[in-house]
Q: What sequence folds into this?
């Protein structure tokens, strides 16, 4: 038996729930499919000491916001799960947990067909709210590591005790790689860290959290279309810092002073050794330059607005590599943690809305296929699109498009409940 809904939302994380809140407020018939439970990604893909990098005051969803006693703090993983569970309970979305969507296609009649673990559904419109982090990205070079070395992706890492005793090589210095390297370092584990090109940012500057300054400066309201290289902006690594222990900088140079071994990018794995690119100094300098550039922007904002803010000395590098360390013997390495990100996996979406890299082509989440939308992508519209901070605005935007599409369907003689269109939609110009 096939069940029909006006709108199907795929994904029950913060994006899917935010979408459901707006649809419910507008009285739109819909269902939210979640393959596991609310908060699944936060339960299953975070290590034990994980904390948000964004402060609690940025945790706001439609009709709901953080109300605890530590707005400038950083929620730990279990607290994020509780936050989402309470959000769902606050408005009772039509949520179907434990239902995976295996296939989405457009039928000859113009409907969307969803083949799920609970049967077949059709929908007039669909919102894909599954985020961008689908399949762990592990480079093929991992296949060349000796059998004695344990390997885990950052999504599988939980704590230092999970790994066999001995030195650990962490590959990648985005937010996850740097925080996992710190976690191991604080536990007294010998750490080798392959440093990539991710930027960093100071946790606090001139009396406030850096993100609070950027929020006041309107940085999070800038649309991706304001940048000349929008496609590249969407692919940039996030700045590394941490919310652990109340929040602090992550300074890889200080880790090196304390005994962590730093290398350039991992280049190859050969019998008995790993080799690295000669770019460690450049990568560290580039990360520092980004952090100092953010401080320059804050200084300018303070000066232009005559804000009374305390002064603060600028960062001075505490360590510099004196020589290039091009290789590491693998004989004593016990484990490798691959902090190398994720691949998008939209193979289940059998609608031609993707570019050559597999990225959905869209304008603020509205694709070229009428009635198909994406929500919760990094930089979908602003910096906060893939986060608690901005997904509500994107969900509201799509809700307006969905209701406009519904009105058009009704006007043109489409049976909304039966889902039997009488004509083909020409394009999306009417909804621009």
A:
């Amino acid at each position: 038996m096939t069940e029909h809904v006006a709108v199907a939302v795929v994904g029950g994380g913060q994006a899917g729930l935010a979408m459901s809140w707006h649809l419910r407020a507008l009285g739109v018939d819909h269902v939210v499919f979640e393959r596991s439970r609310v908060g699944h990604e936060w339960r299953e893909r975070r290590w034990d000491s994980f904390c948000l990098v964004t402060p609690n005051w940025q945790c706001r969803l439609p009709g709901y916001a953080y109300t605890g006693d530590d707005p400038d703090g950083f929620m730990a993983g279990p607290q994020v799960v509780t936050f989402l569970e309470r959000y769902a309970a606050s408005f009772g979305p039509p949520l179907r947990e434990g239902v995976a969507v295996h296939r989405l296609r457009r039928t000859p009649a113009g409907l969307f067909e969803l083949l799920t673990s609970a049967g077949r559904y059709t929908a007039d419109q669909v919102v894909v709210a599954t985020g961008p982090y689908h399949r762990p990205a592990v480079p093929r070079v991992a296949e060349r590591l000796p059998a004695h070395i344990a390997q885990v992706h950052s999504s599988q890492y939980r704590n230092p005790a999970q790994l066999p005793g001995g030195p650990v090589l962490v590959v990648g210095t985005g937010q996850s790689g740097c925080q996992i390297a710190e976690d191991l370092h604080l536990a007294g584990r010998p750490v080798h860290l392959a440093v990539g090109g991710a930027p960093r940012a100071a946790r606090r500057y001139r009396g406030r959290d850096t993100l609070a300054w950027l929020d006041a400066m309107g940085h999070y309201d800038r649309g991706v279309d304001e940048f000349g290289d929008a496609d590249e902006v969407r692919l940039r690594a996030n700045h590394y810092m941490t919310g652990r222990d109340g929040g602090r900088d992550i300074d890889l140079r200080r880790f090196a002073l304390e005994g962590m071994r730093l290398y350039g990018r991992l280049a190859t794995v050969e019998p008995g050794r790993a080799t690295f690119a000669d770019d460690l100094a450049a990568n560290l300098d580039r990360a520092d330059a980004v952090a100092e550039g953010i401080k320059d922007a804050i200084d300018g904002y303070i000066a232009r607005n005559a804000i009374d803010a305390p002064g603060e000395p600028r960062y001075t590098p505490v360590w510099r590599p004196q020589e290039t360390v091009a290789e590491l013997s693998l004989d004593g390495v016990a484990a490798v943690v691959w902090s190398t990100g994720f691949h998008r996996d939209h193979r289940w979406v059998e609608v031609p809305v993707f570019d050559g890299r597999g990225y959905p082509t869209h304008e603020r989440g509205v694709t070229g296929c009428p009635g198909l939308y994406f929500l919760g992508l990094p930089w979908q519209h602003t910096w906060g699109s893939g986060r608690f901070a901005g997904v509500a605005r994107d969900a509201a935007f799509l809700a307006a498009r969905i209701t406009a599409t519904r009105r058009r369907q009704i006007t043109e003689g489409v049976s909304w409940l039966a889902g039997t269109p009488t004509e083909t939609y020409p394009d999306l110009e009417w909804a621009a």
